[in-house]
Amino acid sequence: MRSIYMLATANIRKNKSQSVSLLIFVLIASALLCVGIVLLTGINAFFDSKGVERNAPHIYVLASQDADKDGISRYIKDYPGVTQTETLELVGGMGQFTAGSTTSTGYIFFSRADEKQLMDAPALIDMGDDNLILQGDAAYLPGFMLESDGGKIGEEFQASLYGAELNFTIAGATEEITFGSPMNTVYRIYVPDERFDEIAAAMPMGETTMISARLSDYSDAEQFQQDFSSDMPQDGVILQSSYLLAKQARTTFPTIVSILVVAFAVILLAVSLIIIHFRIVNSIQESMINIGTLKAVGYKSSQIVISMTMQFGLITLAGGILGLGVAQVFIPIVANILRPQLSLEWVPGFNPGAAAVSLGFMLLTVLLITYLSSIKIKKLHPLIALRGGITTHNFKKNVFPLEKARGSLSFLLALKQIFTAKRQAVMMGIIMMAVAVAVVMGLTLHYSMNVNTEGFIRGFFGEVPEVSLVLKDSTYGKDFPERIAQHPDVRKVFGFETGTVSLNIDGTDNNPSIVEDCALMEGNMLIEGQYPVHSNEIALGSSTARVLDKGAGDFVMVEANGNGTEEQYLVTGVVQYTNNVGFNGLITGDAIRRLLPDYEFYGYNIYLNEDVDIDSFIEDVKAREGDIFMSTSNTLSMIDVILSSMSGIVVMVAIGIVAITLVVVVLALYMVIKTIVIRRRRELGTQKALGYTTLQLMNQIALNLTPSILIGIAAGIVIGCVGFNPLVAAMMTGMGIVKADLPLPMAWLGTAGIALILLSYAVSMLIAVRIRKISAYALVSE
Amino acid sequence: MSNAILTTNKLCKTFSSGGLQQHVLKNLDLEINKGDFTVIMGPSGAGKSTLLYALSGMDKPTLGDVYFGGREIGKLSNDKLAVFRRDNCGFVFQQMYLLDNMSILDNIMASGLLVNKNRKAVAKRGKELLARLNIDEPTWRKFPAQVSGGEAQRAGIARALINNPKIVFADEPTGALNSANGEAVLDALTEVNRSGQSVIMVTHDLKSARRGNRILYLRDGVIHGECELGRYESGSYERHDKLNAFLSEMGW
Fold this sequence. Notes:
The complex is a heterodimer.
Chain A: H1 2-14, H2 16-53, E1 59-64, H3 69-78, E2 82-99, E3 102-112, E4 123-124, E5 138-142, H4 143-146, E6 156-161, E7 164-175, E8 186-191, H5 193-202, E9 207-215, H6 221-231, E10 237-242, H7 243-286, H8 288-296, H9 301-337, H10 339-342, H11 352-374, H12 382-386, H13 409-420, H14 422-451, H15 454-460, E11 467-471, H16 480-485, E12 490-498, E13 503-505, E14 508-510, E15 513-515, E16 526-529, E17 537-541, H17 542-548, E18 555-560, E19 566-575, E20 586-588, H18 589-592, E21 603-608, H19 614-625, E22 629-634, H20 635-679, H21 681-690, H22 694-731, H23 746-768, H24 776-781
Parallel strand pairs in A: 3-8, 5-7, 15-20, 17-19
Antiparallel strand pairs in A: 1-9, 1-10, 2-3, 2-6, 2-9, 4-7, 6-7, 11-21, 11-22, 12-15, 12-21, 13-14, 13-18, 16-19, 18-19
Chain B: E1 4-17, E2 20-33, E3 37-41, H1 48-55, E4 63-68, E5 71-72, H2 78-88, E6 89-92, H3 104-115, H4 119-132, H5 137-140, H6 149-161, E7 167-171, H7 179-194, E8 198-202, H8 206-209, E9 214-219, E10 222-228, H9 237-250
Parallel strand pairs in B: 3-8, 3-9, 6-7, 7-8
Antiparallel strand pairs in B: 1-2, 1-4, 4-5, 9-10
Helix pairs in contact in B: 3-4, 3-6, 6-7
């Protein structure tokens, strides 16, 4: 065993620089894998542990003064499985707030800071000694608002509700489970008692009661929401939501990011394995005479194979352990990057399970590939090995004969070399393909979420008008649409509501969107068939269609709000949007009235002319119409808040992918070219002796790799482009997205492809320049 | 007027390794005349190959100068040396060093196309040379691993001659060949020399050395002696005896 260990370490020492390059590959892959696994397995568990720690409510209802608060409270207390309830008085509503340079829209509720809360009590984020005393106009804001450029302690903070401007001084930041995430755009601000009373007195229409409860099993929250919608009158109910939805909203995107990190780690691992295979095959060829000598002096094939396996196993072990160390540095950084999404401070510690899985997986795959690659040693006869494996040279066809082939000499010699070293060309092509796929993914994700967000918004948020209004009473709606349509800024208006009616479709529970006239919609929700038109038609949500295995042309039985009336509907198509994880659908107002004859629209989508200031329009409509709205939303601004919390993460992921990709390109080229120079040392020396200049030889080496790099990158870009949208859809299936149609930044991708090719060529030339220092004599004689 | 094609002035070559210095060539002053078939002999480690490669611009001297036709080549850049070699020199190596992923003809053309871009003309000359060196046409298309050692070495000579060099450097050209193949290679080199090109050959072999008209004996990095044999003629015992006597005198 000692002799095998000596052989292995001698080989590592002999190829120091290549061993170090390989070690870096393994290090990066192992670090990424560990980070990905920690995130993937840790996010949900962390959120749940925080939920328990904070005693977070599993369900809650925000009821305005018009609601039957006592009835709602009784319903919740009596609901099966409820273990604890709490009622809190809040004041607020839909509004806008400006902190630092960021203006956002959402539900803003003020709460008394000194009021004792049983559930999800505000937890002040530790800011050292910076927190101010909560008095006067001081307020505690949700923590995410203070991150990036959202404001600092001691700075001013403005909120605009019901036409009034409220000014505060930021005294500290809180984090909580129920509210305070940009993903669900409901925020709670804690103020001193006196300030709370002032606000409540200034805006009586904003008085809100929050009734919350914990369940014995929080997965029953979904059923509660459906039951509550059908059992209780919804008049005056501002919002009802659950722990499940909060968790889903905050953890879905971080989970997607984690999957991306793991996927990228697997790509890197695949690249490492390809390179290890290449190194072993070359190592066998380079050491052919040594292998012959070892066999001749009595080493068994298995001992030589084990020494190879040990050689790469030791490199992997060292790289893997270093990678785990690097991961421990990066995990808190990545967790911090995900903080705007989680809106909770997460400091994952050392996770021995994730570390063991990462290291074990790396070792197993590397050892397996090493063993499989080196097994050919067993078939090698010692005499053939001693002759340098000469029988392995079997050139059948002289490709590109110089007498007939056209092209420059360097180019033709490079082409000949490609055919001589086909495996090397294929390997380089595969590596560059993997790299190009990763670059396409990173750039396209960044482009879709930061540059051209139209496709993302239209594809995943469903129907997105400029303004969304909810009336307090449906009777206001009798002539409201006609009146608002006359407004000079309005282009279009129609009734549109989501989640106000619960539909049971063939046994599945759904929260559909109800639309006055689907023909007026501008979004991109349809993924199959067409929108419903007639009163006996319905479009199913993507998850509903998948579970029921039904599509356009099928019939379904539908019941609304559990009222016992069932009607048959023709499925006209399938729609997708993220609401209720794809158990949603689309139905017209006339169609819903077959089940709920008294159904009237409370919610309206308003589309404005170009260049109209949305906030001014809302203020103008409120002034004209008076106090008839339950809520008025600048939809685009709300989506902006959600997108901006995602975009920072996407930028970091894209930068990470591109940076690591560049390292991979340089390392892979270094290892391959180093091998080429070693393997073709004598050949290059001969050419140098014959009068080839260093530049010609460098060009020959670089050109030798260029076709495979070019084909690999082109194939990678094509695969990336074709695969990007299906991959996004696959990652978002849990959110009810089955088809993605995000725009591909072709100009970016083309430029990136060209840049990668040029970079590869430049790096190849730079690495090949080492032969400049070697004289022809040395190249031949060594 | 001097007939020298190559001249050295206090040529030194020192190799350093691990802090140790080995002086392989020591202050060599040498003249190689145009049209000569010069043979460099000497014991192993005398510096024969080092001298050959220093004279040919394959390697740079540590000190001293090497002049080719009056032009100092020892201080040229690597790329200028490469161009110098392709224009003026032909090389024949002991191990042939044919490029193993190319056919025999392509090996020769790969050298020729460096100087002459006319593909047809290079191919024509390559084929003529191969025919002249008794390599039959089917062999032109074969790869180095598929031909005999003698054929490969004659192909090496054809490659050395493709650019019509002023001087051919041969380093133990028969060292890896059997007797018959060795004779064929020596015949080829003799033929090259007869056609007016200078040849410098390093060898250990007495039979090979007999082909030269001037023998230089190198020991410990200096020329210990030289012998003029006159032009090679087959079956000349007089030259043979003269060479033997010279080598005995040198302690061969």
